[in-house]
Design goal:
Length: 170
């Protein structure tokens, strides 16, 4: 199952995870940079969209609905940060959820630590050159750290999100 950590060890793990997430959302170019040695998987999967930012955002939400997923939150990060005096290109993070996958994981007490990765998050952002990208966590990079039954559910969920993204950019 999941490794039980002491409170201090858990705090360090959570802190490291939060720093990684912050880096992922604030510095996406760092995440998509190629690893020359190829021995470590990338943290994120990134897809270029041929559509405008607005069209990509709306199409993704439509694809999520078609797939039977719920859009729980739409976080306009550029908007939030502009209120704090920062100017940046559009960045929207969408929280999507599939009840069937969530219930499979959350229904088992020992699997609930995975809830820290839920719901599935998809980021749609525009670069300073005007290119629009869709990014998400590279779930496959984390599957070996999960119990097999959780990894199976996470993998199936990940395939559906990948299909939504593929349909969005086509």
């Amino acid at each position: 199952m999941f490794e039980k950590r002491t409170p201090s060890g858990f705090k360090i793990w959570i802190s490291s995870f939060l720093v990684a997430c912050t880096m992922f959302f604030l510095f996406p170019a760092t995440v998509i940079a190629q690893n020359p040695s190829g021995d470590q998987p990338q943290m994120a999967e990134v897809v270029l969209s041929p559509k405008s930012f607005a069209e990509t955002l709306e199409t993704f939400k439509e694809e999520a609905a078609k797939a039977g997923w719920s859009v729980l939150n739409v976080n306009n990060m550029a908007g939030v940060l502009s209120k704090r005096g920062f100017t940046l290109h559009p960045v929207v993070i969408i929280d999507v959820c599939s009840g069937k996958y969530s219930a499979e994981i959350l229904g088992v007490d020992n699997h609930r630590p995975v809830s820290a990765f839920m719901p599935c998050r998809v980021s749609i952002y525009q670069t300073s050159e005007g290119e629009v990208y869709i990014s998400r966590m590279n779930t496959a990079a984390f599957l070996d750290m999960m119990p097999p039954e959780v990894a199976e559910v996470m993998s199936a969920s990940d395939r559906e999100v990948a299909d939504m993204i593929a349909n969005t950019v086509n």
